[in-house]
Design a protein that fits this description.
This protein is mainly alpha-helical and 182 residues long. It is built from 6 helices and no strands. It is 84% helix and 0% strand.
Length: 182
């Protein structure tokens, strides 16, 4: 029952805080809701799923994310031609970094019952390294995007990117329990 409430509240949050402010079209909202539900259901048994299932989910999310970015950015033809190659490069680097994040989460889940201080410290160090890597990428690509787009569009892009990432991280956080300390 708690799982149902979590998904229900998550979808309400998604609608109120993210999708509606992004002004996505109804068709895109439906796709995102369906994808979000699939992710929510998939994460509950995530540790038991195969790598290929995770890759299918990540691929679907990547496609939907790109469609949402295209919708909220409303580029001119000239802006679109220069934005998408840099966007794809950035997403490739984010994918690599986020793979490290998912590996950390999986390792946490695998060792949840018998977490040692050494393993906990290692996980925290790796999580901090991940956070630093993401920040470095954002700074680097803010500069790259600023060379081809007005600052207002760069800011709008990173707002949309952040909203999508918060949505994903929220669902992951909802599925990962706090570590019990003895």
């Amino acid at each position: 029952m708690k799982k149902g409430l979590t998904i229900f509240h998550f979808i309400l949050l998604l609608l109120r805080k993210i999708i509606i402010p992004l002004k996505l079209k109804l068709k895109q909202m439906k796709k995102l809701i369906i994808l979000t539900i699939a992710i929510a259901l998939g994460l509950s048994s995530w540790a038991q799923e195969t790598e290929s299932y995770s890759e299918v989910m990540r691929s679907a999310l990547k496609t939907e994310k790109k469609a949402m970015i295209a919708e909220v950015m409303t580029f001119t033809q000239a802006e679109s031609e220069v934005f998408w190659p840099i966007y794809n490069e950035y997403q490739t680097k984010l994918y690599t970094a986020n793979s490290k994040y998912l590996k950390i989460i999986k390792e946490f889940a695998d060792n949840f019952e018998q977490m040692s201080d050494d393993r906990a410290l290692d996980l925290m160090k790796r999580m901090n390294a991940y956070d630093s890597e993401i920040l470095k990428l954002k700074k680097s690509y803010t500069g790259k995007f600023s060379k081809i787009l007005p600052a207002t569009k760069v800011l709008r892009y990173f707002q949309a990117e952040n909203k999508i990432n918060v949505l994903i991280k929220y669902e992951i956080a909802a599925e990962v329990p706090l570590l019990e300390v003895k």
